[in-house]
Amino acid sequence: MWNLTRIEVRLCNLLSPEAPPLSLASYNWCLVFIALLMDNFLYPISAMRSHFSQSINWSGIRYHLKDGKIHQIDRSKGKGPKFTDLGGKHLYGKKGGPPKASMIGVLSRSSAQWRQPKKFDV
Length: 122
Known about the structure:
alpha+beta; single chain
C-alpha cells in the first residue's frame, strides 16, 4: 500500500506541475487508517440498503421499482432541489408545456421578418 500511495503522489505531482507539490509527510496516517476502517464498515450496510430498496432518488425524481422495472415516477416539484448537478440547469421549468403558437402569430412574425431589409440588399 505504501508503494501505491507513493506512486499516486508522484503521479499527482507530475500531472499538476503548477500546483504546490504533494508529500507523503503531510498525510495523517492515523486518519487514513480510521477512514479505511469506516469505509469498510459502511460499505456492506450501504450495499444491503441499496439491494433491498425499491426506489431510487435521482436529481430530485424518485423512481419506484417493481419486478426489476420502473412502475412509478414521483416528481416532487416543491420539495426537491432547484438545480441539477450539471451546469446549474433548472430541474423544473415553468408550469405547463411550451406556449402554442397560433397561425396568425406565426404569419405576422414571418411577414415582419420578410419586410426587414437583408444584409446584402443595401
